[in-house]
Amino acid sequence: MVKKYYFGNWKMYQTFSSVKKFVKDLKADKDWQNRLDDRYVGIAASYEHLYFLAQKLGNSFLLQGAQDCSQFTQGAYTGQVSVQSLLDVNIDFCIIGHNEARFYLEQSHEQIALKFKVLLAAGISPILCIGENLVEKEEGRTLEILFDQLEIILEILKKYTGTIKIFIAYEPVYAIGTGMIPSQKDLQDVFGFLQQLKNQVLIPENILFLYGGSVSSKTVISLQQINELSGFLIGKSSIDFQELKKIVEL
Ligand code: PGA
After folding, report:
1. Alpha-carbon span 234 to 211, nearest angstrom
2. Is the CB of 234 under 6 A from ligand 1?
3. Radius of gyration (Cα) for the chain, nearest Å?
4. Do 128 and 112 meet the contact criterion of CB atoms below 8 Å apart?
5. Is the pLDDT of residue 234 over 80?
6. Does 235 sit in the ligand 1 pocket, CB within 6 Å?
7. pLDDT by residue (tens digit) across 66-91?
């Protein structure tokens, strides 16, 4: 891995007081930034915490992101958050297509592709999550499911001439929040396949691969063996600054 990205996905874990504690712990470690070298750290917070993070850490090294966005640019869409309003709080990246959004919010591939487009148009890096569930894996359908989730996105990327980084995060559903991670063989098969797809896009250098699902200070070392990876998407283990720091420094 050349440049490693460590993105925390805080999901719905944090409260205002725990976010304040995270910021305090991060700021107390004045030296951390200097020790990061070629590692980048980002946090995808809940919408209501983004403004606070922008105020407190806006000028720091920390990349800031959202966990979803609307596919619409503006208008009568109660409960949705536009990319324009996310730009107002200076986010660098946005997660889309997370399994929890696909499942609980029933987001379709088409809807996620529209979100992908509005993010590209706004110059915000998407982190597009893809992944199969356990039944699909056991039926030997992993690559088919991944292709299904990526097909429309590939069509967009075959024409995309911009320069922003686009992250594809492989997050097998059975690994999210379970402590289980895929075998090295499974990961090699998946990232080998993703690498082939990447070669079909107009500017392959734009595309970076992440792995997510039970990344912790215990699992990250074996995951670092996968050559195609540019980093990780970290859920539960990113909410505490000390655990996140441990993962980043391993
Ligand atoms: P986890 O979640 O690290 O808690 O397994 C990862 C994710 O869902 O992005």
Report:
1. 9
2. yes
3. 17
4. yes
5. yes
6. yes
7. 999 999 999 999 999 999 999 999 99
